[in-house]
Structure formats: structure tokens, C-alpha cells
Amino acid sequence: MKFMITKDQMKNISSNERKGAWAQTFTGKQFWPLDPRPDEVNLIDIAHSLAQQPRFNGHSLKFYSIAQHSVLVSKIVHPSQALPALFHDASEAYTGDIISPSKKFLPPEFKQIEIKIENVIFKKFNIDPETVDHKDIKKADKIILVT
């Protein structure tokens, strides 16, 4: 594995212009979880990361990725919700997945970070947050969970 950091990226390492710290993505971009921007979101980074992360923290009989889960959810929602459903867990490409039993004990700031990243991802892919039917997606998510 070869990691390369450009001179421009080195300048940003000590930058005080952004909130928090950045993480390098699969494609070599910098992503600032506390200060996300649409131009830093990359479909390849999301797909690669979610394909590598197992659902249920890896506690399943066969490997089952967040990416596979997202595709399945996108197939059973109303067609107008397919794209938002595909990206419903995309923030986990940048925050990592935390299993639900643990997630409910995290400080509320973590959920705010996830929502902010989700909104930036939606903006990147021209998804209007006002048109997202979170109830439909959540219902589909639960159906896929027990299927």
C-alpha cells in the first residue's frame, strides 16, 4: 500500500481554517468530519468504505456489508426514495459504523455530526433533504434488518 500526501495537503495538516481534524479517504482526499464540504465527498470513497464495513459489527454468519444493505433498502422503498435510501448510511463511510445498542449511549453531538455529513452527501448528489421520506426509508431499513 502506498500513501502519498501532496504539498497542498501538508499545508492543511496544521491549518486552523477548518474545524476538527481530517481523515484521508481511499481516493486520497481529505475529509473533515466536523466540517464536511460537498467537494470533498466522493462516490468511490463512499462505495469502497461501505463495501469494506460489515453490518452488525461483523457478527453475522456471512460477510454482509453496509453497501449491500444500502442497495437492498434502496430496492424496496418508493422509487422516489431510492437514491436517498441508497445513501441513508453513507455518513458511515466517514464516521465508521457503530452498532445500535452502543449508538444510543453516544452524546447527541455524534448524531448531529452524522446528520451534517448526510446533508453534505445529499447536497453533493442533488438530493433535496426536504423530499426525503425518512419514515419510508426507516421502515425499509427495519424490513431488511429482519429479512
Notes on the structure:
48% of the residues lie in helices and 3% in strands. The model has no long low-confidence stretch (mean pLDDT 92). The protein has one domain (26-146): Hypothetical protein af1432 (Orthogonal Bundle), CATH 1.10.3210. A two-stranded antiparallel ribbon has the order 1-2. The protein is mostly helical. The chain is globular and about 45 Å long.
Q: What is the total tally of β strands? A: 2
Strand order of the largest sheet: 1-2
CATH architecture: Orthogonal Bundle
How is the CATH topology named? Hypothetical protein af1432
Low-confidence stretches: none
Number of domains: 1
In whole angstroms, the N-to-C terminal distance is 37 Å
Helical run tally: 8
What structural class should be given to the helix and strand makeup?
mainly alpha
**Mind telling me the CATH class?**
Mainly Alpha
Name of the CATH superfamily: Hypothetical protein af1432
